[in-house]
Amino acid sequence: MGRSMAKVSVLQFFRQVKQEVKKVTWPTRQEVTKVSIMVIVLVAIAATFFFVVDQVLGWAVRLILS
């Protein structure tokens, strides 16, 4: 292990974290709302798709085994 990490005090670490957080571009409330709605809609679509596929495959298996 030739390389070692630089020693940083706890106070200095939190100062650096604060500086980095200031550089972050935070989304607006409108962006968060839009993306949240898109996620909910896509999850609902995926759940419906997998429910239908499960029902069809279940029906096919019952048909084959009966």
Question: If you had to describe this structure to a student in words, what would you say it looks like?
Answer:
- With 66 residues, the protein is an all-alpha fold.
- Helix content is 77%, strand content 0%.
- The chain has 2 helices and no strands.
- It has helices at 10-23, 29-65.
- The protein is elongated, with a radius of gyration of 25 Å.
- 0% of the residues are buried.
- The mean pLDDT is 92.
Provide the fold topology.
Layout: H1 10-23, H2 29-65
User: What is the CA-atom radius of gyration, in angstroms?
Assistant: 25 Å
**Global mean pLDDT:** 92
Shape: elongated
Question: Approximately how much helix is present in the residues?
Answer: over 70%
- The termini sit apart by 65 Å
Low-confidence stretches: none
Main β-sheet description: none
Number of strands: 0
Q: Which structural class is indicated by helix and strand composition? A: mainly alpha
- Strand residues, percent: under 5%
Can you write the helix and strand succession as a string? HH
- Put simply, the count of helices is 2
Offer a quick outline of the entry.
The chain is mainly alpha-helical and 66 residues long. 77% of the residues lie in helices and 0% in strands.
Please give a handful of descriptors for the protein shown.
66 residues; mainly alpha
